[in-house]
Amino acid sequence: MSVSTSPTTPAIVTGAASGIGQACAQALAEAGRPVALWDISEGVVAVAEQLQKTHGVNCIGMVVDVADVEALQAGVAQSRAAHGPIGALVHAAGVAGVGMLDQLDPALWDSVLNINLRAEVFLAQALRGDMKSLPGSAIVGIASINATLGNAMNPSYSASKGGMLALNRALADDLGRDGIRINSVSPGQILTPMIQQAVDNAPGLKEEFERRILLGRIGDPMEIGKAVRFLLSDEASYITATELVVDGGNISSQR
User: Fold this and answer.
1) Number of separate domains in the chain
2) Does 250 reside within a domain?
3) What pLDDT, in 10s, does the model give residues 65-86?
4) Which residues touch 28 (CB under 8 Å, ≥6 apart)?
């Protein structure tokens, strides 16, 4: 008897033009899932075209500002029109919001929370009907080890990611009634374009990052993408309200 471990219902991935979001979209396309790739950057269109060419699945790139709830809702409607009912969501869109306490202002705070956290709420709300109708539907939010670790440089980012962990536990209680799972993935230091730029411009920073990590290296975005793919698959059918930390042993390190 064959067992399906990878649903082929369509997925939406936010923040998909680069980094972790792009890796998540790639991992899902590799598994045969149609993907609506969202990003505020127009580069997302070319990423979607390349994934479709490489993996032979229907991928569409869409410019969507997830901080705008009306744009988000329109994006869901457009994704549904292109792919049919949506059975998976990865909310990877996020901004770093670097700014210590004395540098914070309400506009920066609101921008970080609206993109990193609030968007997932209204995406889940807009997609609930689709997901309820599709067995095996699931959501993954990309959180961060900064939800647990203290970092004076980004209190707004840390608050948004800590909020995501709490939010997803609350939504799991609600969505579970409809058979919809929701989990969080907390990456550590991952070699995204943003981290690459930082280590290129700061001699010794890469080594400082790696010194703390038990595996001794910065992670690759696809290592997050594959973890997300697992949580969206039938292999994870009894996992919800959970945080999966993918950090190479950073939080637990005493180095």
Assistant:
1) 1
2) no
3) 999 999 999 999 999 999 999 9
4) 11, 13, 35, 88, 90, 225, 228, 229, 232
Q: Which of 228, 240, 236 is nearest to 22 (CA)?
A: 228
CATH number of residue 130's parent domain: 3.40.50.720
Residue holding tokens 């910065």? 218
Question: How far is 182 from 80, CA to CA, in rounded Å?
Answer: 20
Q: Please give the order of strands across the beta sheet that includes 243-246.
A: 59-63, 35-39, 11-14, 88-91, 138-142, 181-187, 243-246
Please list the active-site residues: 157
The pLDDT tens digits for 36-52 are 999 999 999 999 999 99
CA distance 20 to 26: 10
Residue that is written with structure tokens 């505020």 in the block: 40
Task: Please tell me the total number of residues recorded for the chain in this structure.
Answer: 255
pTM of the model: 0.95
With respect to residue 195, please indicate whether it lies within any of the assigned structural domains: no
